[in-house]
Write a structure and sequence with these properties.
The chain is built from 14 helices and ten strands. By secondary structure, it is an alpha+beta fold. Helix 6 runs antiparallel to helix 7 and helix 11 runs antiparallel to helix 12. About 35% of the residues are buried. About 5% of the residues have low confidence.
Length: about 425
């Protein structure tokens, strides 16, 4: 097949080159204008700056979105409507951008247009059906419109998809359903995360029986930071209400290392270390200070491997109490007992006391410790009132003032026990 040559003169060639050059230059100018306007709007700190960027790139949805966000931060009522205008323009330019539809829904909600806000949220949900933030926004929109069932289906989905929505979801449901735990669990689920938030709500509402029942049903063992925080809050509420047996149950589920028992002293033989700054209510709490020295020792003991020595030295008026809270059965008579050996000189009365935690009423005290070379037993009967289920046992100093409180020497103690005779 013969090749046909079409002659093109030099003028035509130059014209084509010029046309393509002009087209390239115009395209470059358009992109430069768009890029400059976009950068100006997106990086703006004031809405007027963003709107200047829009004048450079009026068809840029990001520029309109940026201007809308800045207008929404203003406290001027007219800016609400300007923000809406920018968002409406942005979605018309980017109809498949779910983030813009979500923001448009929020803006319409703030402008008091729930029905049109719902439409925007639904468009966003259609574009991103698994996005929890959209589910949450639409759910709350429907709730404000009185469509409770549909609202909580979406709120529950949002909470299941993003745990940051779990606490507010339970709080909203609590307010809507008047603290009806069964209804809330049916709507939001019966998983551990929902239980935790309901326990917190119940504790705050002082519905402690239900909070404890829910904690026991869950069988929580400390497995997450959220469980630990919820347990500590419930524990504090129970102790504050004088419910020490329930508090003991919660405490044991949070600390698998040591198990405290109702009517028993924890680590009464001092076989485990005493932590000076322990926050465990049911463990030993030693008052801060440097005198007397308090030492766990295997050098002299009544039983087991260790005892606890209070080293007073050559004579000091300083003193450190040793205290433990024990959960007890109301209306029961216990015996309190402690083994000790004292090589001390003092005018003060060193002894152990047992008081009711709820009102600090003295229930019993041992005899004053006697100095001597042998191990002795100090004990006391403790009658627990019918309305008390927590006592405080304490090593104390009494019967002195000022320099007469000084103690010289060493005191060893071991086998601190509370038992039913």
């Amino acid at each position: 097949m013969p090749i046909i040559h079409i002659p093109v003169d030099n003028l035509a060639r130059r014209s084509i080159v010029i046309v393509f050059a002009l087209l390239f230059l115009m395209s470059a100018l358009v992109f430069m204008r768009w890029g400059f306007g976009n950068a100006l709007a997106v990086q703006a700190e004031l809405p007027e700056q963003a709107e200047t960027g829009i004048r450079w790139s009026p068809a840029d949805p990001e520029a309109h979105f940026a201007a809308a966000v800045l207008r929404e931060r203003s406290f001027f009522p007219e800016d609400t409507f300007l923000a809406l205008e920018h968002l409406e323009r942005a979605v018309s330019l980017a109809p498949n951008n779910y983030l813009i539809w979500l923001e448009l829904g929020s803006a319409r909600d703030r402008a008091g247009e729930p029905a049109s806000a719902e439409a925007a949220y639904r468009r966003a949900l259609l574009l991103a059906p698994a996005y929890a933030k959209i589910q949450w926004a639409l759910g709350n929109n429907l709730l404000r419109q009185g469509r409770t069932d549909e609202a909580f289906r979406l709120i529950g989905s949002a909470a299941a998809g993003d745990e940051t929505y779990l606490r507010p979801a339970v709080a909203v449901a609590w307010n809507v359903f008047g603290g009806d735990v069964s209804t809330i669990r049916e709507l939001l689920g019966k998983n551990a995360e929902v239980r935790i938030q309901l326990i917190l709500q119940l504790a705050n509402a002082e519905r402690l029986d239900e909070a404890v029942d829910l904690w026991k049903q869950a069988g929580f063992q400390e497995s997450s930071e959220e469980v630990r925080k919820a347990g500590q809050q419930l524990l504090a509420a129970l102790i504050g209400s004088g419910r020490f047996r329930d508090a003991l149950y919660v405490r044991n589920s949070l600390d698998a290392r040591t198990v405290a028992v109702i009517g028993k002293v924890l680590n009464g033989g001092f076989e485990e270390n005493i932590e000076p700054e322990s926050t465990d209510v049911f463990g030993w709490r030693l008052a801060p200070g440097s005198a007397p020295q308090v030492i766990r020792t295997d050098g002299d003991r009544s039983g087991g491997t260790y005892s606890l020595a209070f080293v007073f030295g050559s004579g000091s008026s300083d003193f450190r109490t040793l205290v433990q809270t024990v959960a007890v059965e109301p209306g029961i008579e216990y015996m309190f007992s402690v083994r000790y050996r004292a090589e001390i000189e003092t005018q003060a009365e060193l002894k152990w006391t047992v008081t009711a935690v709820k009102d600090s009423k003295l229930l019993a005290s041992t005899d004053v410790f006697l100095s001597g070379g042998e191990w002795r037993t100090a004990e006391a009967k403790v009658a627990i009132p019918g309305d008390v289920d927590g006592v405080e046992i304490a090593f104390t100093r009494a019967g002195c003032a000022g320099v007469s409180c000084a103690v010289r020497g060493i005191l060893w103690m071991d086998d601190v026990v509370l038992y039913t005779p």
